Structures are given as structure tokens and as C-alpha cells.
Amino acid sequence: xxxxxxxxxxxxxxxxxxxxxxxxxxxxxxxxxxxxxxxxxxxxxxxxxxxxxxxxxxxxxxxxxxxxxxxxxxxxxxxxxxxxxxxxxxxxxxxxxxxxxxxxxxxxxxxxxxxxxxxxxxxxxxxxxxxxxxxxxxxxxxxxxxxxxxxxxxxxxxxxxxxxxxxxxxxxxxxxxxxxxxxxxxxxxxxxxxxxxxxxxxxxxxxxxxxxxxxxxxxxxxxxxxxxxxxxxxxxxxxxxxxxxxxxxxxxxxxxxxxxxxxxxxxxxxxxxxxxxxxxxxxxxxxxxxxxxxxxxxxxxxxxxxxxxxxxxxxxxxxxxxxxxxxxxxxxxxxxxxxxxxxxxxxxxxxxxxxxxxxxxxxxxxxxxxxxxxxxxxxxxxxxxxxxxxxxxxxxxxxxxxxxxxxxxxxxxxxxxxxxxxxxxxxxxxxxxxxxxxxxxxxxxxxxxxxxxxxxxxxxxxxxxxxx
Length: 468
What we know:
Helix content: 25-40%
CATH architecture of the largest domain: Alpha-Beta Barrel
Distance between the termini: 47 Å
Radius of gyration: 24 Å
């Protein structure tokens, strides 16, 4: 028997002319912070650049010329706004870093130099010795095995229909957390790099391989950084790929939009080259877009908006791939703000990568648990197509796996195990949470070779039992 529910106060729809009663309370405009893009001349706060006019600051060649590559250059810019102890800490950090250091004046100016130790931009680009942590014992220099999946130098073919073309090995800035620290940038005191220079012969071998594999449809043009390709090289790569019948889409990958947006506004030859390639591809029903890399809301300024507007006017789609980092964007409110701010400037949040195992960056890594917690809050904060997928790029060459899709995850040992049936069927791939995130007894166990082997064996056995 169904009992009818009644109420003494029936709900009535508003009649024409009557005020609407919203289900949600009105939003305070002051809380819509993601639209408040920084538009002041923020670089003038640093004494060395206090007289630099906007026209000069927005010149990409001026940015290149004044990039910070040594402790001495950094000291010249910030010595009057930071302590001598901080500069000593940075100098020691430079010596320990496996990645070469190169920071644009634009980025440097966005750092809060009143509290540099906590600043999310400084953490990503300028190492300080006092914050570094010992590398995880399971770390390797090329943790994603990009070189093992390379049929020819600088071309990784892991997914059936997609290839990664590393056109060159330099960038406008060098991120501490770069997965390709095995090749990108100059040699450091701790790492001798694999050479992937822009070379006609190497490119020819890569193009030949791509053209001879009919299953390939998608190419990521990266490096290094596509920002570092000359306009004629952009044209050459674009026209070669467009001419291949099997290729349906490709993207130029660059962090440049986040760290040097003024290049879009002042390097007309580069932007025009990308635009022409985009137009030629679209004319034959192929897709060309740009993939970029913002990690924190503070990186999105009014200069960013102006650059994105120009690309948007030319019909070029821009997607974003973030790296999830401790002390940078590992709080839910930060990621919500970043997603909304990117959407506001017509950049689509695409991926958030759980930080790869990269030498010298254990202080930046987070646990998979942290990623899951933040992703739960982020989902539903905005439209689905503007909500990124959180992924683990499986160490050992398993490729991108949805962060939640592990076969087994032991939060006590910090070991998560993934499979990649479409990429390497039958194999298991382990990701390891940072040791500092584990309980004291687990941290101690990781120092013991015997216990370490046991932990890994137990995790693999548990994962295999679940996949039978």
C-alpha cells in the first residue's frame, strides 16, 4: 500500500511578474576571485627592474636576455628583498639540483619575496638545499622509460595510435620537477644529459618512422619545449605531419604560455607560423592545438589573458596539463581556483599528473591519497569539460593511468600498483608515495633492503590476485 505524502503548504510556481526565489543564496561577487587577474606592473617591486617599462617587459627577447641561470644572477635581482641566509641556501640548492636552472623575469617577479620559502612559484623553479629530501630508493633517472620505448632517438611510441616527438632538448625555463631531466637542459654537477638536439638527420628518422606506421594518428611535438622551435621549424614539422595521410591530429607542447606569455604578444613570426599550420591542418580536416602547463593560480595574470585571447581569436585550442606538487597545488581550494581561472581565459584543464619520481624533487611529491582527496573536491566545481583527469604516469612505461584505477594500493607502505592492458598487457607498474608521507615505522622499513623487497613483493602479489 502506497501512502500519499501531503503537505499543508503546497509548492507554487512563481506567477508572471513575481520575484523568483532561487534555491541557492546569491553569491558574493567578492568570492569570484578567479576573475581577478593580476594587472599591475608587478616586476617593478624588484629594485633591479623598478625602471623597466611595460613595453620592455613584454618583449620576449628581453625576457630571454635577463633569464636567471646562476645564483649570482638571482642575487643581483633579489639581494635587497631577501636574507643573505636564503641566498646561501639557494646557492647550495643549485649545486645539488639534477636539473639546470633557468627562470624568466616574468616568473621571478610573481614570487612573493616576503616569504620565498613558502611561495608556490619559487618552489617549482628555484631549489633551496634546506628543503630537499633524499630521493626515493626506487627512483631512476628515466622513470617513465621513454628511452626504452623509443624506436629512434627522441621519438617515444608507447600508445598504439600516438607518438611523442622530442624535437629538441631546451626550454625557456627549467622546471625542477621535469620528467625529462635525463635529457633536457645542460649537464649539471649530478647528471650528464642525453643529447636530443634539433638535428635534421634525427628528425628525418623520426618522420620516416611516423609515416611508416599506419596505426599512428596522433603526435605530441614536445622536447624540451616547442617555444624554443624557430618559426621555420614549426612550419617544417607542421607541414611534414599534415602531409602524412595517417596523421589526424597533433599538438605543440609548451610551458611557455605559463612562464613567458609575452612571446605570444611579441614574437609574431612564431605565432603566425603556428596559426598557418593550424589553418592548413583544419583545411584538410586535421586538428592542431597547443598543450601548456600552468600549475598555480598565481601564474595566470592579465598578460596571460591577453595572450590566450590572441590564440582564441585565431581559433587555436589550448589545453592545460598540471603537475600535482606538495606546497604548490596540493590543496583543494588551490586546484579549484586554478581550474576556474584557466577556464576564464579559455584554457581547458586536461590532466593533473601525480608528481613523477624525479631526482632531487622528493620535497615536491605527494601521495596518491592526497590526489584522490583533492580530485573529489575539484569534481563538480565547474563544467565537466573544464575538469581535469588526475593521472599517474606509471613508472616503467605503463603510460597514463587514472589515479583511482590502481589494482592495489597500500597506504601504509605507499605502494600503488597499476596495470595498462591497452599499452603493455600483463605487466604491473608500481608508483611509490613519498617516504615523508608515511608513518615512522614504514619510513624505517624502506631503509631496510630485505623489508623493502618484501613490501614490493606483497604489493605485486595482492595486485595479481585481484586481476586473475
